[in-house]
Specification:
Blueprint lengths: L2 E2 L2 E2 L3 E2 L2 E2 L29 E2 L8 E7 L15 E7 L1 H10 L7 E10 L23 E13 L8 E5 L9 E2 L8 H7 L11 H7 L3
Antiparallel strand pairs: 1-4, 2-3, 5-11, 6-7, 7-8, 8-9, 9-10
Length: 209
């Protein structure tokens, strides 16, 4: 959810991200607020994909955010990223400027559709068509990722997961190796392993904290 960073199915890997500059990270995190949905793990220790996160707080979006150099001859495919956080974690963040334990940042990855290339043409085949339609919009979902703050699960506090596969969304996922996501977050993210610099909603909520 790199702050995420998006690991897009089919179109390539981008990474979910949000991270902290060491001086900004709290020495200890507050316990999870009462009633907050918390991360759950299966018997293999894999994160079970959270449900209902579209009812959480939407905290930002990006298009084509990527942190890797393209390979020679590679054509970039831009992906929309939508990010959500539990309402209780967001409220705690508003009040304190910190993310409590068990915070989950969910990120959905979508292809970018346009007038000629999208998966919804059937919906309007009997309607009058736009003569001109500029810009791009979220089209088909490519994957789902999560950034989880759980010091009981990881000594590094934050862990990163991707639930996408060519067969569809996975019910659970193992954490990426530290060097795959955490190192980037820790080096570049503005606050507590979260790329606050890319999410004005979170920046505004933290103002004055």
């Amino acid at each position: 959810m790199r702050m995420w960073l998006a690991l897009g199915l089919i179109v390539g890997v981008v990474s979910l991200t949000a991270i902290v500059v060491a001086d900004d990270a709290p020495a200890t995190s507050a316990p999870p607020p009462a009633g907050m949905v918390q991360p759950a793990y299966d018997d293999k220790g894999q994160l079970i994909r959270p449900e209902g996160y579209r009812n959480w707080i939407f905290v930002g979006a990006s298009l084509g955010l990527d942190y890797s150099e393209p390979r020679e001859g590679q054509v970039r495919t831009e992906i929309f990223h939508h990010v959500y956080i539990q309402p209780e974690a967001y409220k705690h963040y508003q009040e304190t400027g910190t993310f409590p334990e068990k915070t989950i940042l969910m990120m959905e990855n979508y292809s970018a559709g346009d007038k000629e290339n999208n998966t919804a043409k059937e919906l309007t085949k009997d309607k009058e068509q736009f003569e001109t339609l500029n810009g791009r919009f979220t089209d088909s979902r490519l994957g789902v990722e999560a950034a989880v703050k759980d010091s009981a699960k990881s000594p590094d506090t934050w862990s990163y997961y991707a639930f996408g596969s060519r067969a569809g969304l996975l019910p659970s996922a193992r954490a990426f190796p530290k060097q795959a996501c955490w190192d980037c977050h820790n080096s570049h993210a503005a606050v507590d392993n979260v790329f606050l610099q890319f999410y004005p909603i979170l920046r505004e909520a933290r103002a004055g904290k």
